[in-house]
Amino acid sequence: MTLSNDARIEVEGAIVNGILVASEIESEGGNLKVHAMVTAVPPATAANTFEVSPVSGQPSITISVSTDTQFEDDVGDDKFFSIDKLVANTDFVEVEGYDDGNGGITAVEVDVKEPSDVIVQGNATAAIGSAATGGTMTIFGITFDFDSDTDFEKDSDIEGQPDVNLTSTEI
Does the pLDDT value for residue 53 go beyond 90? Predict the structure, then answer.
């Protein structure tokens, strides 16, 4: 991991004589998040990349990894998990990272999990309609429908604080 000014990190440790003595330092997330099934891995993808498909029939998202990417296997508890161990159409992953500038994500963290709800968090590139009447929005080239029953939330910027529900006039 490369530490630099403004890097988002999480430090865990004990307080000793008023000083935090780090036992673990992790890069923190990034502003993009995807929870989805892995659909392609090397050699079907370029080296150090894999693909996830949150919605069947919609475009996949390319995930790039580096030596700084943290891998965790919460299903098999493999302490040495890496991109080489991902299995297409079997592994469900939670990815946090940054926009790679090409429509994909540069991963800070990849966690293999039990399958759960699909999540796609990023910047909307297109939106039609309103929260009051319904419509569509596009994130990572994937189009999602929403209607008047859809809940819209804004993430709290403060760890441990609840998200903020938005009304149709705030969207």
Answer: yes
Q: Which strands, in side-by-side order, build the sheet including 142-146?
A: 124-130, 134-139, 142-146
Please work out, in degrees rounded to the nearest 5, the angle formed at the alpha carbon of residue 124 by the alpha carbons of 120 and 129. Answer: 110
Give 141-153 pLDDT, tens digit per residue. 888 888 888 887 7
pLDDT score recorded for residue 115: 92
Distance, CA of 123 to CA of 7 (rounded, Å): 20
Q: Which residues are CB-neighbours of 49 under 8 A, at least 6 positions away?
A: 42, 62, 63, 64, 65, 104
pTM for the whole structure: 0.76
Q: 142: closest CA among 118, 166, 158, 163?
A: 118
Name residue 56's amino acid.
S
Sign of the CA dihedral with 78 first, then 96, 114, and 41 last: negative
The closest alpha carbon to 54, from 125, 127, 100, 116, belongs to 116
**Tens of pLDDT, residues 84-109:** 999 999 999 999 998 888 989 999 99
pLDDT of res. 8? 58
Distance in angstroms (rounded) separating the CA atoms of residues 63 and 49: 5
Q: Which tokens sit at 154? A: 């804004």
β-strands 19-27, 32-40: how paired?
Answer: unpaired
33 membership: H or E segment, kind and range: strand 32-40
